[in-house]
Write a structure and sequence with these properties.
The protein has about 80 residues and is of the alpha+beta class. Helix content is about 15%, strand content about 30%. It has one domain.
């Protein structure tokens, strides 16, 4: 389950494009190989109304790319 900001129009999960409803909650289900110990989710990208990629969450990431950039900037003192 994802809760996204108001400026996110779609989530791109692998090849699927999912429209974000007005309330901002999106549930995405995917099928994983039965042989994998820890099933990897597809890369999930937040897409703006203009089609721009706002941020993304990789298959094994816990934080999205925009949040990682903010953490790195805070650590570096920017």
């Amino acid at each position: 389950m994802f809760r996204v900001a108001a400026d996110v129009a779609y989530l791109q999960a692998g090849a699927r494009r999912i429209e974000v409803p007005w309330h901002g909650y999106v549930v995405i289900a995917w099928k994983a190989s039965p042989v994998s110990e820890l099933p990897a989710r597809p890369t999930v990208a937040a897409i703006g109304e203009d089609g721009s990629r706002l941020t993304e969450l990789g298959p094994r990431d816990h934080l999205d790319s925009l949040t990682w950039a903010a953490v790195e900037a805070a650590i570096e003192g920017n």
